[in-house]
From TrEMBL:
It comes from Vicugna pacos. It comes from the Eukaryota. Belongs to the TPD52 family. InterPro entries: TPD52. The keyword Coiled coil applies. Keywords: Coiled coil. Residues 29-63 form a coiled coil. Pfam families: TPD52. The keyword Coiled coil applies. This is Tumor protein D53 isoform X3.
Length: 144
């Protein structure tokens, strides 16, 4: 009895084969003519309500477009706003801040390293220039 009761209370969704079984079952024999008529009337009413809701939704969507046009809002403006909002959201995350800080620090280190390399190269060129001038001028001085 417990397994049977538990089966009735299960909350798992129907699987495709279960849906096929339910769809293929003929429950109409279990209903009286009066119940069938009530269900048919309810079905017609639901279909009418769905049609009405679709019409109302369509009218509201058209009205929304009209209001946006009057306000000068278009797809491009909305995309810009969404992008700006998303970019702001990204920039305020802890991960972005940490990454930005790390990359900024790395950039400063790289700039300092390149500066040091540039200074060293300049010094070497200066030393080479002095050495070349000195080696050129020495023979000329000896001839005098």
């Amino acid at each position: 009895m417990e397994a049977q009761a538990r089966g009735l209370l299960e909350t798992e969704p129907l699987h495709e084969r279960d849906e096929d079984t339910v769809a293929g079952a003929d429950f109409s024999s279990m209903l009286s003519e009066e119940e069938k008529e009530e269900l048919k009337a309810e079905l017609v009413q639901l279909e009418d309500e769905i049609t009405t809701l679709r019409q109302v939704l369509s009218a509201k969507e058209r009205h929304l477009v009209e209001i946006k046009q009057k306000l000068g809002m278009n797809l491009m403006n909305e995309l810009k706003q969404n992008f700006s909002r998303s970019w702001h959201d990204v920039q305020t995350t802890a991960a972005y801040k940490k990454t930005h800080e790390t990359l900024s620090h790395a950039g400063q280190k790289a700039t300092a390293a390149f500066s040091n390399v540039g200074t060293a190269i300049s010094k070497k060129f200066g030393d080479m220039s002095y050495s070349i001038r000195h080696s050129i001028s020495m023979p000329a001085m000896r001839r005098k």
